[in-house]
Design a protein that fits this description.
alpha+beta; Rossmann fold; Dna Ligase, domain 1; 5-stranded antiparallel sheet
Amino acid sequence: MKHVVVLFGGISAEREVSLSTGHQVVFALRGAGYDVDPFEVTQDLGALIRALDPKPDVVFNALHGRFGEDGVIQGVLDWLDIPYTHSGMRASALAMDKAASRAVFASAGLPIARGRVIDIEILADADPLPRPYVVKPLNEGSSVGVEILRVGENRRHEIAREWRFGPQALIEEFIPGRELTVGVLGSRALTVTDIAASHAFYDYESKYAAGGSRHTLPAVIHAKAFAQAMDYAVAAHASLGCRGATRADFRYDDTAGEPGRLVLLEVNTQPGLTPTSLLPEQAAFCGIEFPSLCAWMVEEARCRV
C-alpha cells in the first residue's frame, strides 16, 4: 500500500482554501485505498522536514498560494528526493509569477491581455492604462488582491496606499464578457466551464463561498471558441513545463458577437479541490470521480522534473 503524506494549510493568504482542499483529499485518498497521513503546514519548516522522515512514497501537495505553489515547497521536496503531485519547481515558479508567465505565453503565441508591470506608487499619480483596467499582485492566486478600476471611480490612491503585495503590480486591460476555465490532466483538456460570478468579477468569495458562482459545463459558446480554449489550455500547460493537473483561466469577449476574442489570464498549477472547485467538477463531468482524480495525481507524482 502506497504511503502518502498530504500537505495542507500553509502560510499564504489562501490558507483556508488549502485546509478545505486537504481535508477533501485525505478523505478521498483513504477511500481509494492509500495509507494517508495528513500534515498541517505552519511556519515551522523543521516540523515539516521531520514529518517526512521516514520518506513517504508520495507527497500530495494540497497547499495553495505563496510557498505552496510558487516552487518553494517543490524545491524542498526535490532536495529530499520525494515524489510529489502537481508541477515541479520551475513550472510552479513560472506560473505563479504573472509577469514571467505572460512572457512565456506571448513567446508561445498564446493570446494575452495588453498590460505591464508598474511600481505601485505610480498608481497614485495617474492611470497607467485607459480605463477600465485590472490591478493584480504579481505572486498571488485565487484573485487575492485583484482590483478593477472603472471609468468614474476614484480609488487609485486608496489601492496604492493599502497595497500589501510587494512594490510592484501587474496592470492589464479589462476584458469584458465571460469568465471561462479549462482543466488539464497531463496532456488532456477536460472541458470548458462558463463561470457566472455573484460579484462584479470572479473574486475570492465567488470562488470559494457556497453560491458564490454558477458554473455551466460544457460552456454554451461558439464551437470555434470552445475548441480554441481547449487547445490553448493544453498549450499553456506545456509552455510552462507543467505536469499533473492544472487549470487555465480565460476571459472571453463575446460582447460584439461570436466567435469573439479569447484571452488567457493564467495557469493555476494547484487547482482547488474544495466542494466548490472547478477541476473536480470538470473531472466528474468527464466520468472521473473525486477519489479517482486524487489517485491519478498520486500515481503521476514525480520529483526533480
